[in-house]
Amino acid sequence: MDREPIAVIGVGWVGLVTAACFAELGHEVWARDIVPEKVEALSRGEVPIHEPGLPELVEKNAERLHFTTDMGDVLDHSQLLFVCVDTPPTYSGDADLSRVEAVIGELGESSDHALVMKSTVPVGTGRAIQRRSNGLGYVSNPEFLKEGSAVQDFMHPDRVVVGANSDSDGYADRVAALYEPLDGEIVRTDVASAEMIKLASNAFLATKISFINEIANVSEELGADVREVARGMGLDDRIGPKFLEAGVGFGGSCFPKDVQALKQLAGNTGYHFQLLTAVVEVNELQKRRTISKLQKHLGPLPGKEIALLGVAFKPNTDDVREATSLVLAGRLAGEGASMRAYDPVAGRKAENMLAGARITDSALDAIDGADAVVLVTEWPEFKELDWTGEVKKRMRVPLVVDGRNFLDRDALVAAGFTYEGIGR
């Protein structure tokens, strides 16, 4: 069976996963990026991001993956142009669509191609593009990938959303057909609804996280264990267990940006989205509660040595965008503490981003002489450390703030540690 060739514009994390997975499904893929060094590296099979399974997929499908800086290559080989460029927030909170606009500017008056928008854009973007682009097809196809499991998410989706306002050229049907070999339900809708599905999904997940963090904070005051509370809540199929893990706040490239974008979109219409205002506020305060936990046991922090275990915003990624570690480091530096930090993947990448923190080559190097350890990212290797032996021996004060409720509290307490979790 012939597979339709496709193009991917913007070979960042979403774009590269999209390109590699479509190649795995048998499509010829032309992937275009404006950074020559990135294109050259990818053409040699070098994957510049940490994503489990992605390097193997790129290597396996090398003959079907064509990386280029030339938009002409893309336009010559495919009619379906998957747009995967960044749309970061501006100072006002609105999405910066300059990279999307740059792509449209390069297409000119093309009527033989369709933009398939995977980039997260404000509701109404597709309608505006169609209104001013003579003949250019447009399909909204938002991504729902999680960093650390993106390949699995693409190949085994919960759902695939395909939004189109009119499909006289059959573009939406062609996009939907690309996903037919996969198991997920294909949701066909209009463009604005597809754009809203993406923003609303991430905002709802962020709301669940902020909610369980609020429950955790109240549980600390009332003597309840938030892990047991979350387990009991999650067994209700109306609620479900996912995203009910209390911690030191969410970060990354999606949740903070998308929550703020939806809040700003609502504000632009004159509607005050009170719930999302609270979600953002709770998340920011949650990142700072660690400081008070440290001060409770150590007193004033000037002269104290704090070890941060984990820099990335979550395990199995090297992404430090909006990571809790950045906020913690800034607050600790403001309080006069000294810091060492370790992350098995993202440490060196964040070397100039963690205020005053020294990046070490191992967890034990970060812990050596520390007055407290703060577990920020739940990398599996941190659970395997010899906490009751080597770790305790190296610490000046056996204090652990477990920002993810990840470690064995009972074992640490029995070994003489002071343990602070979240909501426990």
Task: Give a verbal description of the structure.
The chain has helices spanning 13-24, 36-43, 54-60, 71-77, 98-107, 125-132, 150-155, 171-178, 191-222, 226-234, 255-268, 274-298, 324-334, 363-367, 380-383, 387-394, 409-414; strands at residues 6-9, 29-32, 65-68, 80-83, 114-117, 137-140, 159-163, 185-189, 305-309, 338-342, 357-359, 372-375, 399-402, 418-420. By secondary structure, the protein is α/β, with parallel strands linked by helices. It has 2 domains: 6-189, NAD(P)-binding Rossmann-like Domain (Rossmann fold), CATH 3.40.50; 203-420, NAD(P)-binding Rossmann-like Domain (Rossmann fold). Strands 3-2-1-4-5-6 form a 6-stranded parallel beta sheet, sandwiched between helices. Helix 1 (13-24) packs across helix 3, helix 11 (255-268) crosses helix 12 (274-298) and helix 12 (274-298) packs across helix 13. The chain starts with 5 loop residues before the first strand and ends with a strand.
Which class of the largest domain in CATH terms? Alpha Beta
Main pleated-sheet profile: 6 strands, parallel
Mean pLDDT: 94
The CATH topology assignment of the largest domain is Rossmann fold
What spatial order of strands do you see in the largest sheet?
A: 3-2-1-4-5-6
| Assembly context of the chains | single chain
User: Care to count the β-strands?
Assistant: 14
The name of the CATH architecture of the largest domain is 3-Layer(aba) Sandwich
Number of helical stretches of at least 4 residues: 17
Question: What class, by secondary structure content?
Answer: alpha/beta
Count up the domains.
Answer: 2
CATH superfamily of the largest domain: NAD(P)-binding Rossmann-like Domain
Spans of at least 5 consecutive residues whose pLDDT stays below 50 are: none
- Structural Rg: 23 Å
N-to-C span: 56 Å
